[in-house]
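Comment thread on ticket #2218

A.B. wrote:
> Attaching the input chain for the structure job we discussed in standup.
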Amino acid sequence: MTYLDWAATAPPDPEALDEQRRVALEFPGNPSSRHEAGAAARTALEAARSRLARAIGLSAKGLHFVSGGSEADAIPLLALLRKKAPGSLVVSAIEHAAVYEQSRVLERLGWNLREVRPDQDGRVRPENVADAIAPDTALVACMAVNNETGAVQPVREIAAAVKRAAKGRVPRFHVDAVQALGKLELGADGLGADSLAFSAHKIGGPRGTGALWLRSPVETLQSGGGQEGGIRPGTENLAGASAFALAAEKAAADLRAAREGAEALAEALLAGLKAIPGAAPLPLGRVPRDPRWSPWIVSFALPGLAGETSLRALSDSGFAVSTGSACSSASRERRVLDSMGVDRELSFSALRVSFGPGSTRAELDAFLEAVASIYRRFKA
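C.D. wrote:
> Ran it. Output below, let me know if you need it in another format.
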């Protein structure tokens, strides 16, 4: 199987798995226990936190280990339920389900949900976010890199627009940075966000491990033993945290070379699709090496052929791709593409290819051959 679905999950890095096993065996104590084994585990946990923070480029003080990207997204949103009365929240229409569906839950509980649609290129305009902010807006959410189209959002500009537009109390600005980690330089300012969500398994770390960075603490909806500064109660996953830190260190060290490799693959994929009659990149205006899109994610359409049909035929031919977010794979709705105004025939036939450190040009050439053959055979 040629794996081209890295945006869904990356194959685990063997070194990260070795680190996870080593730490689990070497530090059996609970980091909250007061005996010697617990103290050793606590020291190892804080070392993992510092290593991860350095790899990302943020302060360790605000970094909290959680169970994954979805929980890291949920914590700031559910914290709104601590407020005495519902207000409004502003959410981009292209958010991952972890943010989008959580915002719909808040809407059902009385919050006023204000959605901001992107332009046709899949990017959200800062001024449109600013226009959606009301006096009672408590939170704004816009992801860093869209997991379906690869569109890189102008996060810093949105953060600045939020501050300018807010009258009096500035809303919290939350960013799902899951597809940005190990691929974009976040900077010491955390893209100007108040909170950032990360996931280990997108960069070869273990599943079930993530991190939430907070510029300042929030009063969370959860309560318990007070772990992670009270942000995320429950016994800490020390082994997962250490493996996450190692995976992030490797991604940070290889970032420039990895990006160049991904740019070359994306350029070749877009050129190859151009040679297949009828095939179209999504968005239609996407061109190679344009910083508006992440080179690790490329979506395209095969009009006249359902995306699910293409996916199954490609899987039978030995290629793993997707029709969009793995978290929404059971749904026929193409919410992100629809919000961009993509023609229904195109969105219905859309596929997503995503690269990683193990992806090669030979795999991509074979994939393009398979796509051309399947499209000729099955096109309506």
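A.B. wrote:
> Thanks. Noting for the ticket: The radius of gyration is 21 Å.
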